[in-house]
C-alpha cells in the first residue's frame, strides 16, 4: 500500500438532495460550491432510475448499464478529489430492487434522485489529483 498523503478531519455536512436531481452531478456541484478538494461521501435513499458502469480491464473501457426502474440506494460510498483542476466525485453504488435483489456499479451521470441523504466529509490537507494511469487506463490518484 502506498500512502499518498495524511489528512485531518475537515468540515462535515449533512445534506438532502433535491427530487429529480442528478445524483453524481449534485455531489460534484456541492464540492465545487464549498471548495472541497478532498473528501469522502456516503449517500442512502432512493432513485427513480440509475446509470452505472462496469470497467472492462482488458478493453480498458467502461460499459454503461442503465436501470429504468425505481431502486433503493442501499449503499453509495466514495470520495472527492481533483481531476484537471475540477472537483470530481468517484462513487460506487449498490441498488436494491423490489424483490430484494441488487444491482450496482460505478456511479454515472443519469442516476436520478427520488430522495437522498448525504453525509459529506472534508479531509483537510494537501490537494489530491487524478491523472491517467497507463497500466490500468484509469484516472488514478497521483503521488506528487
Ligand atoms: Zn469506480
Brief sketch in words of this structure:
The protein has 144 residues and is mainly beta.
Task: Walk me through this protein's architecture.
By secondary structure, the protein is mainly β. It is 8% helix and 60% strand. The chain is built from one helix and nine strands; from the N terminus they run E-H-E-E-E-E-E-E-E-E. The chain has one helix at residues 23-33; strands at 8-17, 39-56, 61-67, 71-83, 86-96, 102-107, 112-124, 129-133, 138-141. Strands 1, 2, 3, 4, 5, 6, 7, 8 and 9 form a nine-stranded mixed beta sheet that branches. The chain starts with 7 loop residues before the first strand and ends with a strand. Bound molecules: zinc ion (ZN). Zinc ion binds next to strand 5.
Bound molecules: zinc ion
Largest sheet, strands/sense/barrel? 9 strands, mixed
Strand content: over 45%
Q: Tally of extended strands?
A: 9
- The number of helical runs is 1
Rounded to the nearest angstrom, the radius of gyration is 15 Å
Distance between the termini: 16 Å
Please provide the ordered H/E string of secondary-structure elements: EHEEEEEEEE
Class from secondary-structure proportions = mainly beta
| Morphology call | globular
Helix fraction bin: under 10%
Point out poorly predicted stretches.
none
What integer is the average pLDDT? 97
Amino acid at each position: 500500500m502506498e500512502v499518498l498523503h495524511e489528512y485531518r478531519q475537515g468540515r462535515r455536512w449533512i445534506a438532502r438532495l433535491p427530487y429529480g436531481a442528478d445524483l453524481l452531478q449534485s455531489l460534484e456541484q456541492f464540492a465545487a460550491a464549498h471548495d472541497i478538494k478532498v473528501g469522502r461521501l456516503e449517500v442512502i435513499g432512493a432513485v427513480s432510475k440509475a446509470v452505472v458502469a462496469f470497467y472492462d480491464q482488458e478493453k480498458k473501457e467502461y460499459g454503461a448499464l442503465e436501470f429504468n426502474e425505481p431502486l433503493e440506494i442501499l449503499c453509495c460510498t466514495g470520495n472527492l478529489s481533483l481531476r484537471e483542476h475540477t472537483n470530481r466525485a468517484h462513487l460506487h453504488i449498490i441498488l436494491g430492487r423490489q424483490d430484494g435483489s441488487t444491482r450496482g456499479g460505478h456511479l454515472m451521470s443519469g442516476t436520478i434522485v427520488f430522495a437522498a441523504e448525504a453525509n459529506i466529509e472534508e479531509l483537510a490537507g494537501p490537494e489530491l489529483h487524478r491523472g491517467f494511469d497507463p497500466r490500468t487506463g484509469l484516472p488514478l490518484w497521483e503521488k506528487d
